[in-house]
């Protein structure tokens, strides 16, 4: 049987993302290795230090730490030395050097970088959410969305979703297909968060013809048949009415204008709730 190499323990007073990233960056230089990486986050108590050092000792593992609390960092270093565990400090030397250069003591608050850059991390999370819930995927996550966009193919759901996500909104989008019933999960959502996208049939036809040419697909097909598109747009409008969903018309509108309209609508409805 193949034996795994000893693990690396990433010890952090915060979530451990910076230490993890550095460890994985280094491990990428050893592509054939299968080194387990175990993150021990939110370390605040000496007992947590004792536990992870004991684990590293038992597994012949290596500790990589990003502790900004000087007392915990010193305790980990001392305990690791006593038990013969290799502990690599990613923070201490640099903080000591900066303290010397700047002639001031570090704040010593775990997770401070993340707190100071919270908006950035929230945007990244929103973009990840939009990508994971694009084109009707992962319906179990739709209730977590701030906004759910619904409409026929090529109405502009994906670019609008991504634009809103960059602004920090968690957006899912759901396509409507003429031959298929709308997903039942859609009607279990808070209808105030579901936005139907209306468009004039002629413009939708143009979008689809452009898409068909780009793909080199043969035509004409039902996808670009004017009569079928008219029926599809009307069926979508009826479905929006059936679900009690608000609608916006995206005909001849830039993404920014449609996004502003949606944000105004959602913010007005949920201005007292934390999700906005």
Tell me about this structure:
This protein has helices at residues 17-27, 46-59, 70-83, 92-102, 112-116, 118-132, 157-166, 201-215, 226-243, 255-270, and strands at 8-11, 37-40, 62-65, 86-89, 147-152, 171-176, 194-198, 246-249. With 276 residues, it is α/β, with parallel strands linked by helices. The chain has 2 domains: 8-115, Rossmann fold; 118-270, Rossmann fold, CATH 3.40.50. The strands form 2 sheets. Strands 2-1-3-4 form a 4-stranded parallel β-sheet, sandwiched between helices. Strands 6-5-7-8 form a 4-stranded parallel β-sheet, with helices on both faces. The protein starts with 7 loop residues before the first strand and ends in a 6-residue tail after the last helix.
* CATH class category name of the largest domain: Alpha Beta
Helical residue percent band: 40-55%
| Tally of distinct domains | 2
The residue ranges in which pLDDT falls below 50 over 5 or more consecutive positions are none
What class do helices, strands and sheet pairing give?
Answer: alpha/beta
Major sheet: arrangement of strands: 2-1-3-4
How are helices and strands ordered from N to C?
A: EHEHEHEHHHEHEEHHEH
